[in-house]
């Protein structure tokens, strides 16, 4: 029998703050989290995080190299220990006992123990949500597909700074490897846990 997990990815304070164009996003996502918990579907939170001093970040990495540079200039803490911006947004914060996986790059699998955690829990199906559609969701979907997970993307559980990019990915690209549904439809198909 298939066992699913909901991945809530990169919904961290500083990241949410960059994508404030949809005030209904967090309440929708909270609805997905609540539905998963009520059905007994594991909720796994994925965050980006680095050690103090960012030794994992190469200056050749265009995206993460900028973060390390800003930290070096004192302009940011850059998702390192003690950075309040690295905290999971309180609207979807993990409950005691929920797994939090820390990644080092864009994909939820990159530099993390996510695959090991999923395999140990017997999870073979993933439901993806997070910020941004063109970042963590796209990268994680591609890698998870290559690892033979069954995939569902919560179209309105993902957010991107470019609505057209979001539309193309969820409407044209993702359906080649995943079922793409809205949160309400996905939640309606869940069975409550006994």
From TrEMBL:
Isochorismatase-like domain: residues covered: 4-184
Listed Pfam families: Isochorismatase
SUPFAM superfamilies the UniProt entry points to: Isochorismatase-like hydrolases
Keywords recorded for this protein, A-Z: Hydrolase
Organism of origin: Streptomyces tremellae
Name of the protein this chain belongs to: Isochorismatase-like domain-containing protein
Highest taxon listed in the record's lineage: Bacteria
